[in-house]
Amino acid sequence: MTHNTPLSPRPLAHLSDAHRRVLTTAQLRAHGVSTADMNEQCRPGGAWQLLLPNVVLLHPGPPTSDERLHGALLYAARESAPGVPAQPGADEPHRTPYPEAMITGLAALTLYGFAAAPPLPSLDRVDVLVPRLRRLRTTGYVRVLRTPDLPAPRTVTGLPVAPVPRALADAVAELTDARAVRRLLTEAVRGGHCEPVAVVRELTDAKLLNRPHVVDAVDSLVAEGRALAENRLYRMVREHGLPDPVWNVDLRLAGGPHLGGVDAYWPDHAVAVELDTRAPRQDEDALWSEYARKREHLERLGITVVHLTPRSLRESMDQQATVVRTALMASADRDPAAHVVVLPR
């Protein structure tokens, strides 16, 4: 779609289509457009319109979804220098046209392709994430969210977008529909966008786990993540020709104490696999110490423990299968392990 955009003294053809249609007042001045000319063009019935403070839409019709997103980022971005920002070149790969700003919340999830997120045209508001100390106010269709630690953005459709866990937390903060929250969190894990631990860490930081509908959704999320990880572990054993283990068992010394549960165990080799699906709402350091203590105890008894994460199974199953196979083969060279009782978990 084209628009009859009045040309400024300096041509804008080097910019992308969205960039040509939405510019800041500083960028227009850098192209030789005076403040008086801008005011004239943006008068009621004029060829341009003020989309947001200091952000001009260079046509009179309603903005497209791309224009709204681009305008929100231009409004929130830190002005680094006068002129029109350019796309990064080969010699400056980390340059961004939108310093210190990124799309987050539901708009970000829509850009990531979440089926449970609403389409962009139906969103009344676009959330942008900026550093905490930026002096910027929510205005128009843009809601400004602040964070003390701005995450590294992902580039989606050419736009800087908050990582999925952060975007989810910002979206969930505004949702009161328990089903909508559950659908978004489930899709994040089932669709392979991120791991449950990362999501719950963001929800914890955002102090959202005191809301009953969020807690219920998190419980489902953790169960969903564990089930997916277990299925990948089953696939790894089957597809890579590993011997069949006994699954989901508790280990106990004969006549002695309980040693803990493991996800897979090869009694003839004294090799165990444990999935790291720690309950993320608890203290991670304490939980890791508990994992480490159990692992050390089992290894003192001659049992090799292979520690796998859901992410490693998803992203490098071949490599994890090699690790397990190596542990099984090495069992012949080790001293015999202590006799343990294997019980269903």
Task: Characterize the structure shown.
This protein has 345 residues and is α+β, with helices and mostly antiparallel strands. It folds into 3 domains: 1-87, no CATH class; 100-234, no CATH class; 240-344, no CATH class. It has helices at 17-21, 25-30, 35-41, 65-76, 105-112, 164-172, 178-190, 196-205, 212-239, 284-300, 310-315, 317-330; strands at residues 22-24, 49-52, 55-57, 102-104, 126-131, 142-147, 154-156, 159-161, 246-253, 258-266, 271-275, 304-308, 340-344. It has a 5-stranded mixed β-sheet, with helices on both faces. Strands 1-3-2 form a 3-stranded antiparallel β-sheet. Strand 9 and strand 10 form a beta hairpin. The longest helix has 28 residues, at 212-239.
